[in-house]
Task: inverse folding
């Protein structure tokens, strides 16, 4: 899956994320705005347009000591087409989201671990 991700501030000074994914004729555009934020503690991405009927992803950062924190992701979503969407795609979408966040957390842990190790001698 090839994806394009871009952040930009709109007139209301909200950050907007634009993700393009898929291939023609199934190419999609997913737009979310960053809302509900407290610097250093949490922020939320709320879908403006995209593949879900509803999407809100809250990123929470809980300090653990002076040099560490716990990153928690809370995702609230609804598939399009109501009950029919849940019956036809609910399990598939849930598995895909779980895989995506497992990968994201593994990459985050790897990046943090490599920065803690510092440059090689």
Result:
């Amino acid at each position: 899956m090839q994806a394009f991700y871009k952040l930009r501030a709109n007139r209301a000074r909200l950050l907007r994320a634009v993700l393009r994914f898929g291939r023609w004729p199934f190419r999609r555009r997913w737009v979310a705005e960053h809302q509900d934020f407290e610097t250093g503690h949490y922020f939320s991405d709320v879908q403006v347009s995209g593949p879900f009927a509803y999407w809100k992803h809250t990123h929470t950062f809980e300090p653990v000591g002076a040099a560490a924190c716990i990153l928690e992701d809370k995702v609230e979503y609804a598939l399009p087409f109501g009950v029919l969407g849940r019956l036809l795609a609910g399990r598939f979408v849930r598995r895909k989201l779980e895989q995506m966040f497992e990968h994201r957390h593994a990459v985050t842990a790897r990046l943090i671990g490599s920065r803690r190790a510092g440059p090689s001698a």
User: Anything to note?
Assistant: The first strand starts at residue 3 and ends at 9.
